[in-house]
Amino acid sequence: MVPAAVPPPPAGISLRQLLMALGDSLVEVQAAPAGLDVEIRGVDLLDPEDPPTARPGELVLVIGARGRAACPALRGAGRDGAAAAVVKLDGPGQAAVLTETATEAGVALLSLRNEARWEQVNALARAALDDAPGHPAEGAEEGDLFSLAQTTAILTGGIVSIEDAANRVLAYSRSTDSDEIDDLRRRSILGWQGPEAYLAKLREWGVFQHLHSSDEVIGIASHPELGIRRRLAVAVRSGDRQLGTIWVQEGSTPLSEHSEQALLGAARVAAHHLARRRRELSEDLALTRTLLAGLLEGSTGPQPLANHLGLDAARPAAVLGFSYGTAEVVAAPELTHTELANLISVHSAARHRSALVTQLDSRIYVLLPQLPRSIDTATLRGWGQEIIDAAGRHLGLPMRGSVGCLVSGLGGVPESRREADRILDAMLSADVSTTVAALPDIQAEVLVSEMLTLLSAHPEIRDPRLTDLVAHDSRHQGRLAESLLAYLNSFGDVRAAASQLHVHPNTLRYRLRRAEELTGLDLSRPDQRLLAMLQLRLPPTS
C-alpha cells in the first residue's frame, strides 16, 4: 500500500521578519529565549475561555488576558511548541514577571501597545506570512519591480532598493560603480534582507515608525562611522496597509532636485506590484488595463472602470498622450517600452494619485480621473512637460506630448483621447517647435494637418495641375513646386522667399513664371493660391 503523501509544512518567516512587518510602534520584544531566527508558521487567537493550547511554530495572540493573567497561556504555548506569544501589559512591573515566565517556557514574548487593536496585529502578521518565501505568489512580476527600481534610480540619480513589509529585498537597481554602494546596501543585497544591527539603528532613529504612519518621504542623514550614506525612504501603501518600502541611497553625486517627487510616484506604482505579489490584484490589474483601453477607444463605457476602481465618474478628467519615434527607440539600445512606461507612470502618479497609464499601439496615454474642478490646461501641460523633460534627460529620448481637453466626467474620456491624438498627429507632421501642447496652442496646425490628411486620402479633390507640377519636378529634379510654396508662404514677398531658398530673386521670378506656364495656374487668383498652399504641403508620395 502506498502511503498517503504528507503535505509540506506551511511556509514560515523568522521572528525577526515578523517584527519588521509589525514594527516597533505596534509591538516590543520582551523575551526571545530561542533568538530572533525562530520560525513563525501560523497565527492563532487565544480567547480567555479557551484552554491554553497552541500548535508548533504558531504566534499566539493572547487577546483575553492582561499582565499576570497571561502567564498560564505562556506556559501552555511553550508546552505545545508555539514560537511566540503576544500579550498586553497591565501596568508597570508586569513585564518582568511575564518575561521570566516566557523564558522558562521557551517561547518568545511580544508586548502589544495598549492603544493598538488586536485585529491590526492579526492582519499584519497574517499578511507577513502570506508573503513568506515559497508562497505561490513569490516572485510574481519580479521583472517589473527590477525595472521600476532602475527607472527610479535614473530619475533620482541614486541607488534604489525595493523591500517588502518584512524588510526583504525584492528588487534593486543596477550600479556599475561598487564604490558608490554603502555597507548597509551591500549587506542588504547580499543577504536579501537588511542586517539587524543597521535595522536597529533605523528603529532607534524613528525611521520605521515614520514609514508605518506616513506617506511622506523621510530623509536619513549620512553616518560615515556606520558605513551609511545619505538616503531617502518612502512607504509603499495600499490604503492604510504598508506593503513595503523604497530606499534610495545617494551615490558619489547628490540626489536629483526632484528625487522626493519621483520617489512618491514610484511608491504609488510599486503598490500595484506588491499588492499583486500578495495575489490581491493580479486579476484586477489585467481587468483594469482592459477597461482602461476600452474606455480610451470608446468601446467600453465609463461605469465599468469607475465601479472597478471606485472612481467618481462625474468628476473632471483628461487624457495626456505621448509619442516617440521608432528610430529613437532603436538608437537607444538600453531603452525598453517598459522603462518608458515606468517613467511616465512614476511622474504621473507623483502628480495625481489616481493616474492610470497604458500603451495603445505606439502611443502611451495617461488617464487623469477625479481631477480637481479648479485644475486648468496649463497645469496639465506642465505635468506633461515634466515627463518630456525627464525622458530626454534620463533616457535620451525625444518625445512629444499632448493634453486632451478637460471633460466633465469619465464619459468624455474618448473625446479627450481623440483630441490628444489630433494634437500628436499635427506635431508629428507639421513644423511645431513645442514639445507639449494643448489644442489652443496649435489649433491652426492641427486643422491644417487634418485638411492635408483629407487631401491625401481623396485625390479627387486635389487640383490636377498641382499634381502635375510635383510630378514634373520629380522627373526633372526640379524645384518649381518648392519655390512656388516658399513664395506663397512669404505672402508674395519675392526677396524673402528667395533668401529662404538661397537663390537670387530673379531666379525665383523665373521659376514662378515657368510654373504658371506649365500648369496654367493664375497666381493672381486667391482661391488658386489658397489651394496651392495646402496641396503643395502634401508629401511627394501622397
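(the above was protein one; protein two follows)
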Amino acid sequence: MDVMPLLLLVAGSAAIAAAGRRVPVPAPLLLVAAGLAVSYVPGVPDYTLDPHIVLPLLLPPLLHTAATDSSYLDLRAQARPVALLSVGYVLFATFVVGCAAYLIVPGLPLTAALVLGAVVAPPDAVAATAVARRVGLPSRITTILQGESLVNDATAITAFKVALAAAVGEGATWAGGIGEFLIAAVGGVGVGLVLMVPLHWLRTHLREALLQNALSLLIPFVAYAVAEQVHASGVLAVVVVALYLGHRAWEVDFATRLQEEAVWKMVAFVLESAVFALIGLQLPVVLKGLGEYEGIDAAWYALAVFLVVAVARFVWVYPATFLPRLSARVRAREGDLSWKGPFVIGWAGMRGVVSLAIAFSIPLTVHGGEPFPERNLILFLTFTTVIGTLVVQGVSLPPLIRLLKFPAHDVQAETLAEANAQAQASRVAEQRLDDLLADERNTLPTPLADRLRTVLERRRNAVWERLGQVNPVTGESVDDTYRRLSREMISAEREVFVRLRDGRYIDDEMLRTLLRRLDLEEAAAYREAT
C-alpha cells in the first residue's frame, strides 16, 4: 500500500490551513481552491472519495468534535428550529431539488433525480462549524446551524437509501420510507442512550489520562459501528454520546481534559483540512465519463441545481421561522425576532464532503445489470453544488454578516458575569479551606496555608481587573501585561535550566521534569489572564 499520497494530502492540507489563518480568506475556501488547482498538476494521483472510508472513518470523529463543542442546554432550548431544519428541511430539499432536476435534465428518471436531491440536501457539519467559528455569528444562530448539521446527515442518508432503493428497482413506498426513517432515528438515539452512561463511567474510572484519551478517540467509532450494525443511524448515536460526554466533561480528571482538548483540536484540524482539500481534488474524477453532458449543457444544469438548492432553503427557512410565532406562547417565550437571523441561516447552507461521499456510494448498476441512470451526471451536479455553496456562500457570508450589523457581543457584560461566577465559587472554596484547616488531620504550615489563600484571591481578582483596565503607557490590558511579564520570568528560568543541563549539572530527565513544571505554570498564568 502506497502511503505517500496520504502523507502528501495531510501535510499539504495542514500547511494550507495554517496559511489560511494569516489571510482574510477562510481556510476551507483556500483548501478547496488548492485542491482544484493541484488536481491538474501532472503526476498527482487521483484521490477518489471512498464512501466506505469517509462515512465510517472521517464522519464520526468530525461529528464527535462538533457535538462535544456544542451545548446540550442551548440545543435543547433551540430544539424546534433545529428539528425543522435537520428533518423537515432535508426532506423538503430532497423533494424540491429532485423534482427540479427531473424537469431540468432531459431523460433523468424521477427516482434518480430524487437520489440527487437526497445527496445535496444536508448542509455539512464541517463546513457550518468552520465558517461559524470564523465569522463570529450570534450564539443563537450558531447553535441552530450546529444543531442542524449534527442531525441532518442521518435524515439525508435515510432519504438517500429510500430513493436509491426505488432507483435500482428494489421497490420503495412512502410507508416503507417513513418506517425506515423512524427505525434509523429511534434506533440511533437508542444506541446512543444505551452507550453513553457506560462509556462515561469507563472514562471516569480509568486511572490514567493516557488511557482515558485513548478511549476518547475510540468512542465515536464504537458508537457509529454499533448503531450501523443494528441498522440504526450511526450519526445520531455519535451525536447523542458526544453531547452527553461534553455535558458531563467536568467529572473527568483535569489532566484528561487538558490532554483531550489538545488531542481533539489536532484531530479536528487535520481531518477538516484534509476533507476540504479532498473536495477540490475530486474534479478530475467527477469530470471523467460525463460524456454527452460535457460543455454548456452540464454548466447550465449545474447552475440551475445550485440556484434551486439556494432558493429552496429560503423558501423553507422563513415559514419555518415565523409560522410557529403565530402562537402567542411562542412569541412570549422567544421575544422579538428580526428578518436578519433567518436570512443568515438561509444563506449559511454550505454543502460538504458528506454529500460527495454519499454520491460516490451510488452503485454502478441497477437490478438487471443496467448502468445506474446518469450516475456520472449526478456526481458532477453534486460536486458543482458543493463547490458553489462553499465558494459563493462561504465567501459572501462574512461581509453579509458585517453588512447586516448584528449586535456585537457585550464583552463587559460577559466579563461581569464571569467575575460574579468566580466570586461565588471563591467564597465556597474559601469556606471549604477553612473547614479543612480546622481539622487537625489537615495541619499545614502558615506560609503554605497563606499561599493557598493568595492563589484563590488572585484567581478571584483577575477577572475583575479585566473590566476596562488598560496600561496607559503600552496600551495593553491588565491581563496582557500579566501574561507578558509571566512569560518573561518563566523564559528566564527555562534558559537557566537548559544552561545547567548543558553544563552537566542536571541530566535530561530532570530537565524535562523542570520544564514541564514551568509549562504548567505558564499555562496557569495564561488561563488566569484570559
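Reviewer note on protein two: The chain has a mean pLDDT of 83.
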